[in-house]
Every structure is written in structure tokens, then in C-alpha cells.
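Database export, one record per block. Field names are fixed; values are copied verbatim from the stored entry.
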Amino acid sequence: MKTVKLVALNLLALLVFGFNINQSNACTGIRLTAGDGSVVYGRSMEWGTFDLNSRVATIPRGHSFTGLTPDGNNGKKWKGKYAVVGLDMLHKDYLADGMNEKGLAVGLFYHPGFASYMEYKPSMAEETITAVNIVNFILSQFASVEEVRAGMKTVQVVPVIEKALGIPVNAHWIVTDATGISIVIEFTDGQLKIHENPLGVITNAPNYDWHMTNLRNYVNLSAVAIPDKKIEELDFTPIGGGSGMIGLPGDFTPPSRFVRAVAWTQTARPTAKSEETIYELFRILDNFNLPLGSAEGSNNAANLEGMRSSTIWTTAWDLTERVLYYHTQHNRRIRKLDLKKIDFSKQAHEIVHIPLDDKKEQDIKEISFRK
């Protein structure tokens, strides 16, 4: 009986831990295209369980990578063909979001309960990587979505426990290139699945094709107001603006955020060039900012010490001009890093890390009254 109770308590603890981890992530990614054909991609990084301590990482051509397996650092080895800039996680060289010098962008998004990787076979270790290696692998090796489609079929992706979580990183990925083509990569029942992503939107669980089917429940949504209606000689008009979006879900769940992201990107104002499109992308992603405590997250206050938001950072990548823009939970001033101005040849094949914030405080400009 004691053994049964112990097993039950351990299972309950695992479920509670898993629930907290699952519910604290609410990332949203979108793609927009300017009138001149310029493409921008961006995402929010929500993680209300603990600070990911992300940094900007610049990776030169020729950097050596090794994939992780359950046995350790004995996985696939490769050298980078392309220079990369990305945002890492946990003070490790695991990129969560990034772009390479060819204008290919990749984002890792949490996918709890649905990601199911391949079975690890030690005899295939030389072809094996894990979830936290995928952004690095794709960005350092490929220049287009078409190359990614072929390249992902050459590797075995297996589950490896991440110590910070106590479980493998369950994820799926959005990949977008400078032409605007976008796909979503998932692993379902141990099989690689590549979905076309014509709307350029991603959130979290469940699987991407489920989200696309769910959109059929919202075909009534429109940027055009509901017309006036006359009933029994009475005239009814909408109370105010926005009546065409009645029924738009407003909660923080991945399905609701997916619908909102599609609604806002499909009704985004026209923009001529990428710089103005970046502004529009940030405006849309501001709809997905999560303050601490607004959604389920960590129950341990110590884990949240120093955090100001569940939205840790927000990125915007200009895939045409090869520029990173971002702001953080501490400072909403937009920072900019132009890949074309980086001399990657001076890095001696090593990764260089740059803090996201020089100071973890808001940059405020004081103005004065003038006659």
C-alpha cells in the first residue's frame, strides 16, 4: 500500500510540474510582407516559469557543432556554412530564434504533449541531434526553405532530457526564408512532419494542422463592421467599432492566440518597405504580451526574482535587409543589429555573446517644456 501511495504521489508531482511548465509558455510567431516584397518575421518569447537568461549570439562561418544524444555529446558533427545571429537560452549555445546571412529565419516554439521524437539508436549516433540543436543546425547549414525540407530528412531527432526542465524540450519550429515561404516542422509519433504555412503564423500545442482546421470556426471574423439590421420596425446598429471581430477569442491559450494572430496579420495595414513593416509587426505582437501572473506559470517566487513580465523578449527579423530588432521585459526600447555590418571573419570560429540589456531598466527620455 505504501508503494502504491508513493507512486501516486510521484505521479501527481510530475503532473503538477508538467502542468506548470506547459502552461507558462505562450509564444506567438508571425510573418508579414511589405509592398515591395520585403519579408519580416518575428515572435514573442513567453516563459513565466523562470528567466531564460537569453543573450544575442553571433556564430561565424566554420563554427563546429556537435549534436546531443541521450549518451551525451556524441551526436552529429558539422561545420557551419553560414554565419548566424540568434537569441539563446539558459546561458547555453541553444538558439531559440535566429536568422542567417542568407535571410533564413527559424524559431523554436514549445509544443508540450504533442512532440514525439524518433527512438534513439546508438548505432546512428553520428546522424543524431536533439530539439535544442535544430535551430543551430538549420541556420548554419541551409539558405532556403527548400534546402531545409531536404536537410531535415538526413538527421535523426531524438529526445534528450534538459536539466533545467527535467524533461526533454518538446518543440516545433517555424522556418521562413527571404522569399516569404514558410513551413512548420513537427515530430508526431516519431515521424518528421513538414507543414506548409501559407499564413505565416505559429503558436504552441496542439499540432499545426489542428490549428488550421480550427480556423474554420472563425470564418465570420472580418475587419468590416457588421451592417445595420432592422427587426420588427426597430433599427439596430453596432454599438461601436470592431463589430466584425465579435467572437475573436481573447484568452492566452495557443488555439486562441493562433486565431488572433491570423486575424491581426490578415488585417494588418499595408506597408511599403521592410522598415515600416517591422513597426507593424511589433504593433501586432504587442497584443500578445503577458504580464507575470496573468497566466499559469511558476509557483515558486524565487524563480521569478528579477523578472518583470512573462514576455521575456520580442524579436523582429528583417529577412530582406538581414537586420535583427528586439525589445525585452526590462527595456521596450527597440535595439538593432545589422548582420551586414558584422565581420564574422574576426570571430575565429567561436561564438560571441552579447547581453540583451546593458542595464535591466527601461530607457526613458525626459522632455522639457519649451515656449
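Remark 1: The radius of gyration is 22 Å.
Remark 2: Helices lie at 2-23, 134-141, 145-151, 208-214, 254-266, 274-285.
End of record.
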